[in-house]
Amino acid sequence: xxxxxxxxxxxxxxGLKGLVLLTATGLAFLIxxxxxxxxxxxxxxxxxRLSESNRIRRIVIKAERGYIYDRNGIPLVRNRPSYQIxxxxxxxxxxxSVFNRLLRIRDTSGARVIDSxxxxxxxxxxxxxxxxxxxxIEDASDAQVAFxxxxxxxxxxxxxxxxxxxxxxxxxxxxxxxxxxGEISEKQVEESYYVDAGYSFGDRIGQKGVEKxxxxxxxxxNGVKYVEVNAYGKEIGIIPEMEHEPxxxxxxxxxxxxxxxxxxxxxxxxxxxxxxxxxxxxxxxxILAMVSSPRLDPNIFSLEKRELAKEWAxxxxxxxxxxxxxxxxxxxxxxxxxxxxxxxxxxxxGFITExxxxxxxxxxxxxxxxxxxKCWSPKGHGKMNVVDALRESCDVFFYQCGLDQxxxxxNEVGRRFGLGMALGVDIPGEKAGLLMDSVTYNKxxxxxxxxxxxxxxxxxxxxxxxxxxxxxIAAYFGAMATNxxxxxxxxxxxxxxxxxxxxxxxxxxxxxxxxLKSENWHILLNAMEEVISAPxxxxxxxxxxxxxxxxxxxxxxxxQGDKTHGWFVGVAPLEHPTICVALVMENAGHGGSVAxxxxxxxxxxYFKTDSLEMxxxxxxxxxxxxxxxx
Amino acid sequence: xxxxxxxHRLDWSLIGIVLLLTFxxxxxxxxxxxxxxxxxxxxxxxxxxxxxxxxxVLIVGIxxxxxxFWYNIAYPFFxxxxxxxxxxxxxxxxxxxxxxxxxxxxxxxxxxxxFAKIGYLLVLSRYLSGAKVSLERPLSFVxxxxxxxxxxxxxxxxxNLSTALVFSATTLVCFYWGGLxxxxxxxxxxxxxxxxxxxxxxxxGALMGSVLLxxxxxxxxxxxxxxxxxxxxxxxxxxxxxxNTVLEEHQRSRILTFVDPMRxxxxxxxxxxxxxVTIGSxxxxxKGFGSGSQTNLAFLPEEHTDFIFAVLGEQFGFVGCxxxxxxxxxxxxRAVSICQVHGHPFITTMVVGSSTILIFHVVVNVAMxxxxxxxxxxxxxxxxxxxxxxxxxxxxxxxxxLLRLKGEEI
Lengths: 630, 410
Fold this sequence. Notes:
- The complex is a heterodimer.
- Chain A is of the alpha+beta class.
- Helices cover 37% and strands 19% of the residues of chain A.
- In chain A, strands 2, 3, 4, 5, 10, 16 and 17 form a seven-stranded mixed sheet that branches. A five-stranded antiparallel sheet of chain A has the order 12-11-21-20-19, sandwiched between helices. Chain A has a three-stranded antiparallel sheet with strand order 1-8-9, with no helix packed on it.
- In chain A, a hairpin with a 5-residue loop joins strand 8 and strand 9.
- By secondary structure, chain B is mainly α.
- Chain B has three domains: 1-64 and 261-410, no CATH class; 69-176; 181-246, no CATH class.
- Chain B is 71% helix and 3% strand.
- Chain B contains 16 helices and three strands.
- Chain B has helices spanning 2-5, 12-33, 44-64, 67-92, 112-130, 142-157, 161-177, 182-197, 201-218, 222-246, 249-259, 268-280, 293-296, 308-341, 345-369, 387-406, and strands at 94-96, 99-105, 108-110.
- Chain B has a three-stranded antiparallel sheet.
- In chain B, a hairpin with a 2-residue loop joins strand 1 and strand 2 (99-105).
- In chain B, helix 5 (112-130) packs parallel to helix 7 (161-177), helix 8 (182-197) runs antiparallel to helix 9 and helix 9 (201-218) runs antiparallel to helix 10 (222-246).
- The radius of gyration of chain B is 22 Å and the shape is globular.
């Protein structure tokens, strides 16, 4: 289908049409050029003045982040204004004189307010960062701000900025639950979660804890205002013709935390010992208190980047890993606390009854094949039934109990109570822990070429070899005591808006409904109580006068340290459990003697003040729901 | 090798114009986004450079092919682009600024509406190379009308009005090229004019008068003349009814604001005011590269994409803007001159269509930056940041080079 220029008429036609198209393009461009000339030549002066003075400036009003409250309406995390004195490089016409004037500022004692070396560095940076404010004084005092504001004409290029920062009235308390906010990272800014929500560079977002979990609730909506500014960058006034959009503040998070209980737990758990503690209500999964030690000062995250980098390095490189929330991220062998699982599965699967005794008596140890495995008590416990064995925490009973069953039934019951899985708590970073059987074992230790043998059951039956978090232990023990199902632990109680209106509430959710047969449940409840109240009970330190408390101690061996991790879990009142405390103290010794007293303090506080607190809670709740009187 | 042998007919002046515009574009994206934090390899200018590099590979690929190949794959290619448009619309692509327009392939995203421009150009050129459209034979509009309506409605639904307008402009110019006379083009458009003019009775009356005049001069068959008149009256009446009874006050206000952004100085108008001030403050020769205070202070939203022309205007002034417009004009001149070398209607329609797509973007984008057109979000070829659009632009350039090089091999 060759197409030659056989038809001169057609070629002429094409030429004409081409000319029409070119003319049309040229005409359109001419109109654009005329308009360009109008704007750039005729109206040049006016436009230049407008741009020079930057008369209209669009200012984003950052929405105020929502607060965090405890269950009784006590504010735990608030905002405070923070003033910055900064340098706006492009407005800096006379760097040397401004530099010298800044250095001449002295406080009442005569010391320089601004460090000359860092100021020199800031002025250096100003050469290539022309259009970003560079901070000179971080978190400036009112006096400093007033001083600068009154002398703006002497300091052309120096501006004051105000930002909202997080304020923690209770210092380090429960800081691991709150987490912290920080500038959005380069990686996050590309994640679809943040992209879809409209985040961009420079935004501060929740980086850990509930700050991260409930970021979209906390953030609110930024507003916009249009202001007229003078050549010094100072606002002259807002421009009334331009419509302003006020910022709408974020929603408040009412947590399930009980700050009184938290304070007691914090005081009881020494900062020198590493570990984690969880207090929750097994009836609905509400977390009443959570401690992770060593503590973390959340205020350091409010600092400027440079300062933060210093503090951050000291925290992040700290071998004690204070950034980790050990209550949900620390995984430890459960030790004897696990024995209730071994016992429960033996009962549930019919391997033993309440009165069963194993053939080999405890003589302070147990022979299995060629090896001799000790009981913690060198004296030995003799022949025991399951309740006695749990009370005395006799290892030899559970060696045989484990061998009798194999790991499968034990792990099934473990999973019923949430072990070996993440519980879905609303704090990011939760660890799932680990339950062990032959398949998992061979896979996990393939690299080391270790093979599963039945001898492993001896260790696993007494809780050496599994990994659990304090949160899991609290949830498991609580659920076993209530036998009404395992509830998902959570710290969010309600989300409320600025006026206190309820936005949404955390509905308790059951993770696993399957409990124990009634008769087995009663046997285990009896054993739980024996641990605390029997004359030889290992958990005597957690007794509460007048209250039926159940519990279990544990001392988990760890390969790193010579001392064991001390575990304690306690639940009360056994008739209708509403509180379960679990804690682990790393390398601290025996659970009964180091961890038990801590749990005891928490439990005793809870019951002594319970009715009083309820009344107070009701009252504070009411004040929170009422609009603030402003 | 074929490519080497034909080198003397490769359009080096077109390549020169394109490289010059590309270079200016990269410099503008750089200066518009230099204040963004982040490492250089994540910067907009670097990524834009990558887009152009990929575009050059595409051009080389196109130059290896033959026009016949594009003629043959026109329909399948068009079908594919329509399918991808349906995919983003109904299955759901990724959203950017609230409109689902993207398909993500892990590390990169494509905008099917961009490639639909190519697909539609191919299919329209192929159809018009075999059939003429004429107002005297209304049936001649049926097939091209369907080919137009499918992608048009799909992108309109996204909603992406600007791309839909690109389809319309391409269609009209190619119809003109394919035989439709200017008065007929006018008549074809009058129902659309009627919808707009219906707001003002005098304007609508004037429009009807001119329609009657053209109809009387054209001496079309009676039934066609009546149909056109009826269409105009119907469109005008429907528009009047919808405007005054169906639409709510806020909907009317939104439409008016779209047409005249200045009605809303805090929203669309804010961008336009800032854009005008930015351009105007550039003066005759501009403030110099990297010295745009408006740009650097981020007074101007979307500065590296839709309002890149303002960045140019501020830093290089009237002279810089005029040079860029001149380069675009030279580009079209080079393109249209292909029609004097090769006569096959597929070739010439492709050339005209490609040029139309490019120039329509330029005119609408610049007019928007100058406050003369609604803010539609059409990017400026070679200057605006954006991966898919750079690809489209470079493919069109590839076509223009190919058609001159091998235009007789069809």
